[in-house]
Every structure is written in structure tokens, then in C-alpha cells.
Amino acid sequence: MTMKPVAIIAGAGLLPELLANECRRLGRVYVVVQFQGIDLDWAGGHHTEVAEFERLDSLFDRLISAGCTAVVFAGAMARPRVDVTWLDASSTRLLTAINSGDDTTLRAAADLFESHGILVEAAQDTLPDLLIEAGVLGQISPTVEDLDDIARAAEIASALGRVDVGQAAVVAQGICLGVESIQGTDALLRFVMETAVAFRPNPIAAKGVLFKAPKSIQDRRFDLPAIGPDTVKAAAKAGLAGIALAAGQAMILDRAATVAAADQTGLFIYGHVAKVS
Amino acid sequence: MTMKPVAIIAGAGLLPELLANECRRLGRVYVVVQFQGIDLDWAGGHHTEVAEFERLDSLFDRLISAGCTAVVFAGAMARPRVDVTWLDASSTRLLTAINSGDDTTLRAAADLFESHGILVEAAQDTLPDLLIEAGVLGQISPTVEDLDDIARAAEIASALGRVDVGQAAVVAQGICLGVESIQGTDALLRFVMETAVAFRPNPIAAKGVLFKAPKSIQDRRFDLPAIGPDTVKAAAKAGLAGIALAAGQAMILDRAATVAAADQTGLFIYGHVAKVS
């Protein structure tokens, strides 16, 4: 792990706070970059720079003055509504990419930082313990039927990833009950909760699994799939038996609370290793 | 088209009624097979045989006595809750397949009929006018941006079909807003209506399209994708610009009412021909 001063571009969710706390614990110099309109209720005790999507040149100037030579993108950020009457040069470059899909936008953002000498670092390099290992976490193990559902969901997620749709799928008894699109995992689990009861053919057989893996086309520096305690609670509400993640390629945020939530609700958490065929 | 006496296995939706009316118009001998628990409010004026999932041998005997040598599967049928204490030989064969996924179940049902000398006929062979032709129906045409969304949705639906997930996808401005799983198109459109507002990056640009095509692995005798007037109304509620279907491979039920609904709500209906690359 490098110890260069790092800017944390903070979106929603637990990840930016975890990164800031870890930098503080390690004594690494960091600054939390908060974009206008993004609410960070945890950021009070941290060094924060407020930034605007229309004035990225100004952000780069400030980061370089502060000696920041690394940046981490952390947490979900909705596509901004940008005031196009008021854009500096860097912002114009980013805006051009924003209408071209998620991956393209993130790559353009990365290129922009790197063209200013600020290197993009992956969250999992700053916090390697976030990555899930292979096998069972917590007290509950998947059944043989659950493992079949995991393998089927992994096959579906892989097909989805190749066409850049989402990172997750829900499968019960071999049947796909939902697939992640731009709305994210919470919306997928709500959809399953509201619609899936009649579609588990055998009411006493496997209840189903949420599986998450990165898209095959994905730049691994951004947006690795992640779960936290709230994901476990939502999966329990959706009637699932557990959650599986691609081992070594997905993150568990707040591991203690996440595993505790799984144990309390009777769900398994499983690091899945794809079989090589 | 053959004119053999035909049994119409009637599920939900408009298709079985259309088939029965068409047989009557053509003077073709037919019988509507109504399974217990399936409500057919339109079937009053038609010759109907009531059947039970547990007693398929009895159904075959009656169909053969009636001289039926063809069968059409029409309309959605939920997986039945079967009373396993009470199964004849044919029902036992079908039940074994029921837990193996949609396509497997339908193929097993087809094999069962054909082993009794009753040939499975596709709805589009009985009613070829149901298939959508290439190009625009009705008064509204897709824009260039809509055609881009159609091409992207077709790519996604194709990837989904290869892993046997669904027949439909919704795309707006290049971004996937939803994908069909076992719950069907109505549930997909409801999901888009409830969740997608914030995810169309440009609020004044393309509103998005519903695209449907058969799964590549699909037996074309069953369950070709279809739309009717209600699909158009649901797509309008979901804020979409129109509906595209794989030309020659999907059905429009009640074409006059469907096109009228599209014209009234300002949506296009489009028969899409995939580009050969």
C-alpha cells in the first residue's frame, strides 16, 4: 500500500467513511472531497474540501497545493445535474463523457485526475481487508440447493456484466427472480420482496440467494460490488436464504455488523469461487 | 395451416380467446381445455373441457375420443400446486419436469402430448397475422435516439435469453432501466415506473423503450413474446417513448386496439430487424 496523501471522492454509503477512518488510523494524510448536493453526515470530524462539478480546475489546484498525489472514488454518486452555463475546462471534458454510460464516465474522471498527476487508487488497495475471502462467513452455511442457485446466479450475473447492465442477480430453485439494473441492489431486493412469492415453485424448498460480482468489462479501480448490514436486512426481508459474493472481487463494508446481521436473520454469507470449466 | 381438430390449452391473457374465435371463423374443429383453478371468463360460448393436472391420462383419452390430433399452448399459466397424493401416470411424468425450469417443463408437456399422437402446433401457425412485421405500426415513429435504445435493449435481451432469464429489457439513453425475469413484462414496467425517474441522465432526451424478443434457446412452439393494449398502457405509465419487438418473432394481440392505444398515448410500436454484423 502506498502512503501518498490521498483525496477521497465521497459518495453515498459506508465506504468513504471507512476509508477516512482507516487513513486516520494509519496516519496517512487524506482529504474528504464533498461535492455540492452530496450529504455526508459522518464527515464532521474529517478534513473536508467542498467541490463543484462545474469547477473541477479549482479542485485540482487545491488538491495539488495540498500535496495530494492519489485519489480514491468511494460510494455511489448519482449523475449530477450540471449548470452548463458555468463550466471550466476540466468540467467540460468530464461532461462530454457523462452521457456515455457508467464505465465511460468513471474512466473519463480517472483520466482527468491522472492528467493532473493524481493517481487513481482502488478502495480495496487502501483497505484490502474489505475483500471477501472464499467460503462461509458467520454461523450459517449454504445448502447444496443454495450452492446450485449461487452457480446459476453467477452464470446470469456474468451474462449481464458482459453487456454492462448490473452486478447482481437473485435466483431461487434455479429460477431468476430479479436482475440488477442501474437502480442498484436495494431496488432489486425490494422488487423481489414485492413480486416473487408466487414464483418459488416449491414453497418449502430453497428460498433463494443474492449473488454479486464485478462486471467482466469493469475497471476494477471503481465500484467493486459491496454489501453491508443493510443489504443483509433487505435480503432477509426479500425472503432469501443468503448472500454470495465473488471471492476476492467484492467488498464487505462493516464486516462485524454485516456478519452479525446475517447471524441474527438466519442468512448465510458466502465467498464464491467460480468453477473453471 | 393444418385443419386438424385442435385442443387449445388455455392460460391467462388474450391469446387463447383469439385462437378460439379464429378456429370458429375458419370452421376448424376445436376444444378449449380449461385447467382447474384457471379462470376463463370469455369461454362461455365455446366448447370447453375441464382438466386436472393430476389426471392428464383422462384428458388425453377425451381429446383422442374427440378426434383431436393437434394442440396449441396459449397464454400464461402459473406453475400449478399439484396434489401429489393423487397422480396418474402422465401427470407423474409431467410433475418430474416441473421443477426444472420453464423451457424444460413446456418441452416435457409437448412430449407428453406427442407421445399420445397429438401434435403441438404454434399459435403463430394457427394465427400467422399475429406476428409483427418490420417497421412502424401506427402514427408515431421512433427517433434516431430511440433506435439506438432499441439496439442496446436488443443486445441486452439477447444476453438474457442465452441464460434463459427473460424476453424483455427497458433502455433509456443507453442505460438499462430494467430486465424481465420470471414475473413478466407487467412487473418489469411497474418496476421501471416506480424506480427509473432519477436514472434518465438527461431529463429532456430519449424517454426509453421496451424491447421484447424470444430467447435464443427457446422452443418457438411456445410462449413467443407478445404485447396487447394493456402492455401499451403500462409502457406509457412507465414514461417510455415506445415498444419494439423482434420482427416476425413476436405477437401483437388485438392489433387494432393495441395500435389505437399507442396512437392515443403517443407511443410508437416498431418491428425491429436485428442488424447482421
The first-to-last residue Cα distance of chain A is: 34 Å
CATH class division of the largest domain in chain A:
Alpha Beta
Q: Could you name the CATH homologous superfamily of the largest domain in chain A?
A: LpxI C-terminal catalytic domain
- What is the C-alpha radius of gyration of chain A, as a whole number of Å? 20 Å
The gist of it:
The structure is a homodimer of 277-residue chains. By secondary structure, chain A is α/β, with parallel strands linked by helices.
Question: Can you walk through the features of this model?
Answer:
The structure is a homodimer of 277-residue chains. With 277 residues, the first copy, chain A, is of the alpha/beta class. Chain A folds into two domains: 6-126, Rossmann fold (3-Layer(aba) Sandwich); 131-272, LpxI C-terminal catalytic domain (Cytidine Deaminase, domain 2), CATH 3.40.140. Chain A has nine helices and 13 strands. Chain A has helices spanning 15-26, 56-65, 89-98, 102-115, 123-126, 144-162, 185-195, 229-237, 255-265, and strands at residues 6-10, 30-35, 48-51, 70-74, 119-121, 135-137, 168-172, 175-179, 209-212, 226-227, 242-246, 251-252, 268-272. A six-stranded mixed beta sheet of chain A has the order 6-13-11-9-7-8, sandwiched between helices. In chain A, helix 7 packs parallel to helix 8 and helix 8 (229-237) runs parallel beside helix 9. The longest helix of chain A has 19 residues, at 144-162. Chain A is elongated, with a radius of gyration of 20 Å. The two termini of chain A are 34 Å apart. In chain A, 47% of the residues are buried. The model of chain A has no long low-confidence stretch (mean pLDDT 89). The A-B interface holds A 78-79, 98-102, 155-156, 159-160, 162-166, 173-179, 181-183, 187, 191, 195-196, 198-199, 201-202, 205 and B 78-79, 98-102, 155-156, 159-160, 162-166, 173-179, 181-183, 187, 191, 195-196, 198-199, 201-202.
